[in-house]
Amino acid sequence: MTDGPLIVQSDKTLLLEVDHPSAQECRMAIAPFAELERAPEHVHTYRLTPLGLWNARAAGHDAEAVVDALVRFSRYPVPHALLVDVADTMDRYGRLQLSQHPVHGLVLHALDRAVLVEIMRHKKISPMLGAQIDDDTVLVHPSERGRLKQGLLKVGWPAEDLAGYVNGEAHPIELKQDGWTLRDYQRQAVDGFWAGGSGVVVLPCGAGKTLVGAAAMAEAKATTLILVTNTVAGRQWKRELIARTSLTEEEIGEYSGERKEIRPVTIATYQVMTTRRKGEYRHLDLFDSRDWGLIVYDEVHLLPAPIFRLTADLQSRRRLGLTATLVREDGREGDVFSLIGPKRYDAPWKDIEAQGWIAPAECTEVRVTLTDAERMSYAVADPEAKYKMCATARTKIPVVKRIVEQHSGDQVLVIGAYLDQLDELSAELEAPVIEGKTTNKERERLFDAFRRGEIQTLVVSKVANFSIDLPEAAVAIQVSGTFGSRQEEAQRLGRVLRPKADGRQAHFYTVVSRDTLDAEYAAHRQRFLAEQGYAYTIVDADDLLGPAIPDVG
Amino acid sequence: MGALSPRGLADHLRTVDDGALVAMLRARPDLAVPTPTDLSVLATRAQVRLSVARAMETLDLFTLEVLDAVRLAPSVPGVLALVGDAVPAVRVRVALDRLRSLVLVWGEDDALHVLGAVADTAGPYPAALGRPVVELLTYASSEQLAPVLQALHLPPARQPAAAEALAEALADPVRVRKLVEGSPPEARAVLERLAAGPPLGALRGARRVVAADELDNPVRWLLGHGLLAATGDDSVELPREVGLALRGDAPLGPLHPDPPGTSGRVLKTSDVDAAGAGQVLEGVRLAETLLAAVAAETPGVLRSGGLGVRELRRLARIAAVTEPVAGLLLEVASAAGLLGQSGEVDPEWLPTPAYDVWRSDDTAGRWAVLATAWLRMTRLPGLIGQRDDRDRLLGVLAPEIERTGAPATRRAALTALAEFGVGIAASAEEVVAAVDWASPRRRGRGEALGWALDEAGTIGLTGRGAMTSYGQALLAGEPAADLLRKLLPDPLDHVLVQPDLTVVAPGPLEADLATELGLVADVESAGAATVYRVDAGSVRRALDAGRTAGELHALFAKRSRTPIPQALTYLIDDTARRHGGLRVGGANAYLRSDDEALLATVLADRRSEALRLRRLAPTVLVSTAPVNRLLDVLRDAGYAPVAEDAGGGVVLTRAEERRAVTGRRSIRPGADLPLLDDERLAQVVRAARTGDVAARESRRAPVSTTRVPGVTTATTLAILQNAARARSDVWLGYVDAHGGTATRKVRPVSIGAGYLRAEDERTDVLHTFALHRITSAAPVEE
């Protein structure tokens, strides 16, 4: 029994006491193989998963090192069975290797013959394998490379991909570091990615994922396909690339619903890639239209299934995934691992905040009490209508107004899910609204005006959840959301996390109706904030509206 | 050597002192029960083959090798010479002392005796050497030996002189070696193989006289030169003399004075103990979780005994362990008396009262109970999930996996591991090899030994594959719990409350704190530490259990080392505010009226006191009395109540006469009787008559009998044979396969091959009776 900061639980979670003197050292030791699950104030929870352990193996850590880290920092004796399990799991990685054979091309080579026999008999794997060359080697058709890796991961024998990458069509790209330089963690992320060949970089919103992409392109110096969630995000990428790299406007193409340009660097949206006409994906040729040297997937946690299928065919090209969280609501983390690549870099939000790269945020939940009339109509409402009814309670509007007043001089985003409510707020606050039906042109115009400070308050629907860079937004007020989506909460918080020019604090308000579903969903979403280390305060609307106004602005 | 009379041993026993006899009985306790009447009885008993076999099971490989040497050369100098320089003489003497203490070997140093049963048990080939030439050739024909004598340039001779001459010639190792050197290479390969043992080979037509033109065949060549001897029509044996000559300096073959070693890693004792203690925490926690799960939803006992596969799966899922681990822990809990069956009818598996006592102990104490039970239990949980020879699945807690040898096997495995040294993580194969060396005559336990090691790891007796210090103490029968207690963390009195509403107990908690937290929060992750999550449901559970919001606040304020997050305070207050907002109770009837004053009157009326009315609202009273009584009492008191149905409609009551709930169905007489025809009635009568006669006859006692089953006397046989010839009926007393006796009237048809074939007088069906089951026979007097 030592006095270590770590407690290893039998369900393979690791509890790290953050205030412990050697907590930082321990974090460094376990970060390569354990996934950070929750980072509340005092005790962080990490989890050991097969994926995480295989990630570690892929990054060159062996079981001995993992066991040693667990035993060294553990406060209590670590159950022997767990250590055995860790060693066994890690031992499964790399028994099979995908490699280039000088004569036969792509082959699957086994370091353990029994494993090869096992998978050759597996009815899901065997169709993907070709003829057997010798006892330890079997042919693989290059087009099956991705699917095979995916399949092998599912059966628990992840293959090490040593088959290498094609360089693609060369294209000169340089970073223009005039007056700015790549931050340390961005550099580490790029280096980690480049050394591994393919993989995913996990960074919080506002931490400059675009720059990681740009730097990766500068490493590759090849034609690049960038896949983004929507057109606005695509244009943002374009702007950023023109500003930060040697690329010019002419070299960057947009491939979206509106334009179909294919240039050395092409930015396409997930939406257009997955548009179907007569049951066929019309735009998948894009993947083959050039000899791409690098493919960048923005917001990889949202990558739609058809793109996964395509990515399976692109295993010989370098792939970079960017995301704020690897949590996928559909549980396809395994596909991300096998098709895009293992996680190459990860840092907890609070660390980056501590370095000053993302703005510190103060989270507040404002509870409003419904009027008796509202309570009554809520009480008798249909179950389907209940959430909307309490989320859009009129009582919220004066509260929102009050918060906006308190932050006069700041750039404020009011975020909601229901259009009626947004329109109402827009009228009350005399602020423009951006929603699904707003044209891209109009959106661009309003966002620009907001960035320049011409508009102080903007009311937005969930179209603004992703990839909109509004550096000056310092206050976000959330009035309604998509039920309890934690991912949405993270994205919305991300809107205000970009560092402010004067280092001001960001504010994130959630206005909820007390004793209703709204409060329940809010509690669920806030768990995510708490788990990311953001403590939030609960404030009563009456305190906010009342005569004694606390100086929060 | 070998064959000797019991008297010889008895006389020997008479010469030794009491201490030696006591040592002998200690080494071979089976000789002492029942108490032998005198030394010759003891001597006889000591030579019984079963007892000798049992004694030999306790010998290690080297001692058995020395025993072989004694059989080859029955004297101490002879044995030492055979063993040679390979092993220090003192080691040989130790082995001899052991053999003597077991009285497998006795006598003076220059003339040792080996019990005859040793050869019966160990086989006729000590040290894998064949029998001596004389013995092998005694029964060979003179013709067979003639070519051999010729090949060895010996004068022709007839038996038995031929065999003696050959024996004399082959007793000279130089001569044998010369012969071997002159043999064809293929023949030498055969010799070397047989010399390494076993000394037997198969050869068609081995007894045939070797013809001169057959010498191309290597085995024939060997037979023709006396280097092999035919022992049967199809078998040959390498004579002992030849084997010894071929082995040269190592007449006993390779010796194994030391147990096989290990290439296992040497770990620090503290690491081993730490890993083991970690597993102890885990094992004890899992056992408790499983037992709690059994208590929460009691699984039924299968008709065949044991626990159903599906139940095991469910319990394993609850505890988040694999089924084999769950099976093992349930078996151990059952062996420790923590898990048992409820009553006779539809029994269920339930924790026993001992479980509550066990639960109140600390981890080390609880572990000691489990580990001791595991060490001693005569069950083999490794069999769970396998199928028996009748293809039935072997289940957890089922009677089929009872194995009396299990504790010995377990102890053998752990002892072998412990003997490698503290902190040595030997592999299962190495442990099996060591156990096989220590008791080679009990080989074949490899699988069970492997299971024992796995189970020891699961229970935490070993850590990282090596023996722990407290495990060793337990094995030695010393108090292990105290040693273990020092390795386990002390219980804590505080927790850490986090803003995401989780409560982390960074170690085992004091029992009362654990209980309180278990009430107000759900366990999210268990292990050395516990992570609890507080939510509205769990807070409500605490409130339901009678805690107040204030108490909950106080609990967290007092026990948390970290500041209480605002969210938790709000959660408790919000839940408490809503708790009890709705009230539920039972009442048999209500009394309502729009006239509040009227209800007040009724409530105040002394005549309605018996109704125990209670005011719920100004316009509603409830009563525990049934509706009819309420109506009667109110009417008697002069009120005018009306009854309501569930929907609020008025029920018009009118006095009803009472009726029985159900009537009995009337049945037409005779409807349930079966149809009887004359033929069946006749059968009934015949059967009744036969039975009656049988009863009378048996009272009269049959003429010729022996009442002892298994003895059929000549008289009985004579009666039966006569009856068969005359085709007349006899009364037959018979013991059936279930041991029941019966008397039947039969007509014998034939007797032969130990069976009587006879016709049954009633049915004319031919029956077969085993003669040894017939207890009596008597002619029927018409």
Overall 3D geometry of chain B?
A: flat
SS summary, helix count of chain B: 33
The whole-number mean of residue pLDDT values of chain A reads 82
Radius of gyration of chain B: 43 Å
Overall mean pLDDT of chain B: 81
Fraction of residues in H or I helices of chain A: 25-40%
Strand order of the largest sheet of chain A: 12-13-11-16-17-10-18
Number of helices of chain A: 22
**Structural class determined from secondary elements of chain A:** alpha/beta
Strand content of chain A: 15-25%
Low-confidence stretches of chain B: 1-6, 662-676, 699-711
- Give a count of the beta strands of chain B, DSSP E runs of length 2 or more: 26
What overall geometry of chain A do the principal axes of the alpha carbons give? Answer: globular
Tell me briefly what this model is:
The complex is a heterodimer of chains A (553) and B (782). With 553 residues, chain A is of the alpha/beta class.
Can you describe this structure?
The complex is a heterodimer of chains A (553) and B (782). Chain A is an alpha/beta fold and 553 residues long. Chain A is built from 22 helices and 25 strands. Chain A has a 7-stranded parallel beta sheet, with helices on both faces. Chain A has a 7-stranded parallel beta sheet with strand order 21-22-20-23-24-19-25, sandwiched between helices. The model of chain A is unreliable at 548-553 (pLDDT under 50). Chain A is 38% helix and 21% strand. Chain B has 782 residues and is of the alpha+beta class. In chain B, 46% of the residues lie in helices and 12% in strands. Chain B has 33 helices and 26 strands. In chain B, the strands form 9 sheets. In chain B, strands 21-26-22-23-24-25 form a 6-stranded antiparallel beta sheet. Residues 1-6, 662-676 and 699-711 of chain B have low confidence and may be disordered. The A-B interface holds A 1, 7-11, 13, 15, 17, 38, 40-43, 45, 71, 75-81, 83, 515, 523, 526-527, 530-531, 535-538 and B 271, 274-282, 285-286, 320, 325, 457-458, 460, 463-464, 487-489, 496, 498-502, 504, 506-507, 525-529, 531, 562, 565-567, 570, 574, 578.
